[in-house]
Amino acid sequence: MPKHKNWFWLAAFAAACFFDFLFWKKNLGISFLIWIAVLIIIGFLLAWREGKKPSAASIVITLLILGFAFVPAWRSEPFTRLFSAMLTSGGLLLLSATFLTGNWPFYKMVDYFKALFTAIGGGLSRAILMGTKSSNPPPLEETQTTRGGKKVWAFLRGLLIALPIVAVLALLLTAADPVFGDWLKKILDLEKLPEYLFRAFYIVTIGGILVGIYLHAILPNKTEERPDPNKAWMKPFLGWTETAVILAAVDLLFMAFVFIQMRYLFGGTANINETSFTYADYARRGFGELVAVAVLSLGLYLVLHTVSKRESKTSQIGFSALTILLMANVLVILASSMSRLLLYEDAYGFSQLRTYTHVFIYWLAGLIVVTVFLELFRRHGHFALALLVMTLGFGATLAVMNVNSFIANKNIARAVAGEDLDVSYLVELSSDVVPTIFEKFNDTATPKAVKEDLGYALACRTVMMDDPVKLPWQEFNISTVQAWNLLQTNKAALSKYKVQDNNEYGWNYIKDGETIPCMYYGYMD
User: Fold this and answer.
1) What are the sequence ranges of the domains in the chain?
2) 3-state helix, strand, coil in the chain (%, to 5)
3) In terms of Cα–Cα distance, which of 94, 79, 96 is closest to 43?
4) Residue 515, SS3?
5) Element containing residue 104 per DSSP (H, E)
6) Which H or E element spans position 422?
7) 102-129 pLDDT tens trace
8) pTM, full prediction
């Protein structure tokens, strides 16, 4: 039991109410960073109040969490924001699971899953257990102030429980008696009562979960000892002969695939013509093979490493040789997948999905290379940490590189080289792209035809973009404000690019006698 139980309840429900204030009917923005910072500050203050000190590794996680929590206030590109929010949420769970011990760098895969699920379980159960657990008998001499404080807390708890009960009964009585209903409408806005009930419900739910998570982080049921990442978490049961046969068979399959289909893997345009593939089919097949082969190969390595017996030095060397050969084959197929993606981008330009794939391939290749080194140096237990680092690296790369700016740079460069520029796709991209378009629009080296397309893209964005000042401050986003300011500052220069609105096309412009929509609202793979 905590020394200051009421402080946990007060802090958690204050944070839950603050969540409602920041996010109810509001999009993600600076509010996400503020709420995450508030949660962390509350946790550290409660730990200090209970006399608990976080580990040094917990400080590292805290800094990473705050860094990724900043991304939704910095970037507008949806996937980058979503992935950063997911990493932030996962980081909070990991922080709560290892707040005092800092054992996360020594976890195996199973330890990470166990820690995260234990933290979730603690969030769902610890508050209930603390509320039902009987306290010690009160001291014989209790001051009037202490007794008064307990009565206040008891009153507040009773009021919190009574509110939803009274609300439900009031709705029933209103339906039963119109006179009572009219009287109640005069003092309450009954039309919004369901909304208030829903908000009260999730505030109570979030508050209870936060109490449990804080308790789990600061006052865990038992202190976890530092695990040995290289120690097996289950007893191996598969013989070395069976393991060698499995790995050798997969290696032979991959080697045959790479050898026989070398032209298919790296054949380029000639291969597409022979197989009647479209560019899209060619790239999709490449990425499908990438995902299937890489995931299955890594999964096979982890499973066999866990369940296979390698009691002799010969079996250990043989296992390492066969798994390293497996990873080498996977790297070859990764290279072929990248070559197909480059071919696809050269033909049709860059899109968001293609860019995600680009970044993903590099980090996945990095994970495979690290896996090889871990196997060579007998540090295979650190694979989980390597996977965590690569996942964080993938998320950080998307945030730092500015995905939409990267796409605009590449596609505009193609247009300068004589390829077509998809203006509508530029308009569909987030506000992150606006500074890059302006940079190329004002560049004297940009050809006149390309500059005209960029001018129409910016003009479309000008008429379609809402003033961010009119949005709630909780939705503040640096990229959105920067884009708005640039568009308004250069409004006179863009005035010659006429954009109109009609029922048939929506916002559109006319170029060379052709009506072109500002946005197609389509999907580009």
Assistant:
1) 5-133+146-218, 240-378, 404-517
2) 75, 5, 20
3) 96
4) strand
5) none
6) none
7) 999 999 988 999 999 999 998 888 877 7
8) 0.86
